[in-house]
From TrEMBL, chain A:
The UniProt record lists the keyword RNA-binding: no
Gene: ureF
Main location: cytoplasm
Protein purpose: Required for maturation of urease via the functional incorporation of the urease nickel metallocenter.
One of the Pfam families matching this protein, by short name: UreF
Protein's cellular compartments: Cytoplasm
Alphabetic keyword roster: Chaperone, Cytoplasm, Nickel insertion
Name by which UniProt lists this protein: Urease accessory protein UreF
Family: Belongs to the UreF family.
Subunit and partners: UreD, UreF and UreG form a complex that acts as a GTP-hydrolysis-dependent molecular chaperone, activating the urease apoprotein by helping to assemble the nickel containing metallocenter of UreC. The UreE protein probably delivers the nickel.
Keyword Chaperone: yes
InterPro entries membership: UreF, UreF_sf
UniProtKB/TrEMBL annotation, chain B:
Protein name per its UniProtKB record: Urease accessory protein UreD
Gene that encodes the chain: ureD
Transmembrane region(s): none
Pfam family, one: UreD
Role played: Required for maturation of urease via the functional incorporation of the urease nickel metallocenter.
Natural source organism: Gloeocapsopsis crepidinum LEGE 06123
Principal subcellular localization: cytoplasm
UniProt KW keywords: Chaperone, Cytoplasm, Nickel insertion
Domain of life where this protein originates: Bacteria
HAMAP family: UreD
Amino acid sequence: MTIERVLYLLQLASPALPVGAYSYSEGIEALVEMGIISNAQSLQHWLEQELRYGAIRLEAAVMVRTYHAVQNGDIEALSYWNQWLSAARETEELRSSSWQMGRSLIKLLVELQPQVLPLADAVGSCNYAIAFGIAAASWKIEPLSAVILGYLHSWTTNLVTAGVKLIPLGQTAGQQIILNLFSDLTNTATEALTLSDDDLCSCSWGLSLASMAHETQYTRLFRS
Amino acid sequence: MLRLLELNNSQKLNSWHGSLNIVYALVDGATAVTHQQMQAPLKVQRPFYPEGAVCHSVILHTAGGIVGGDKLSLNFHLQPKAHTLITTAAASKIYRSNGLEARQNILLQVDTDACLEWFPQETIVFNGAIYRQDLRVELAPGATWLGWEITRFGRSARGEKFLQGNWRSHTEVWQQQHPLWIDRQWLHGDEQIINSPHGLAGNSIVGSFVWIGQSISTDVVEKIRTLNSTVEQGEIGVTRLNAGLLCRYRGNSTTEVRNWFTEVWHLLRSSSLGKPAYRSRVWQI
């Protein structure tokens, strides 16, 4: 990767990217309330399982398909995978959070790079993984494995930050969790590159129940 | 190695390739079977009409269970305005595999203004089973599909857990080449996944109830969320889909999950289909 492309990736994967990621916990707020996530170990375990078998692994694999679709100028594939992801979201709350973040990123991208507009128009209600793939391909970030790592790393950082706030944990404990997840991040990134369409499946019982519980949680700081 | 090969070959020789092709149509105001083709070990019993115009069908697996290498293919087609309720005569059993995957492909084609209620009894996935089910619903505009899937991992009554094997159950509902709901579940037999709160949280039973084809108002969703009095042990959740509703259960009792799903079903049946509550005589609950 050229140094210049590293900078694009850092910008795209940065927690400062104005897409509102900090307002989503993806069910972690409900899990903390239920006492299922209560310390660094249980938070790390949850994120580990999610990376190995969960929805984020599928999202990463769909992001890969988006990146290829943009490279090939295949707008039909882009729209197909966006609809696929919307239909595969576990809950209404997770669907709207993905759409909100996707919309924000696409809006930003169109302002920075107006040539993205036809892609944005073709996709419609855009999931975040799709918007991320469009951004990475438009900024010509490569190799693709680095793009996936950036996607997964920003997801991890965001949820660890949510956990640190909710449990609560010290900042060092949060950083340690992220470091401990490095091997899972690289494994999932490798898998996301090679997963066939037929093998797109996940274990989502825990996530869907946690997110459904969050939809009716009485007091909450996070929107998912 | 040779023995393993022999085992695999004998399993291949004994495997079933059963199929069903059934077509339903509205004839003189009631839904009738207009075409049927069956291949062992699958059968469909003679349709019956316990509630007037709705056609009730019961699927029978005459070999008792599914082994590695089996391929079952079920096709049901509801022509416009047909209304059918389909269930199974008994729980399905997926036996421990000696290497081969067992597969079940289900295609449900529901034409305009038709309604298919799909309520098979539970599937028991034995420890060591390798199973994959693909259920695809082709839903025409105006059509409705509602169904449940209840799965028990391991013969839990005797303490068996699903510590080996692989289970995949892919359910997809499409309307005119657009996906309405995609649920591609996967459970790898592994102690950590079975016990993790992210997986089964130490439970043996999971269930999904889904209603697709008409959007559900928030009022009805709120009402459904209060129907939890029968659930004591399991965890439950309700959410809205783009064109419907989804309920999930994770716990240890098939009676509990069936009672809860039945309550939700009855509420939706009366509020959205204008049909009274019904309990199938084959379920014995």
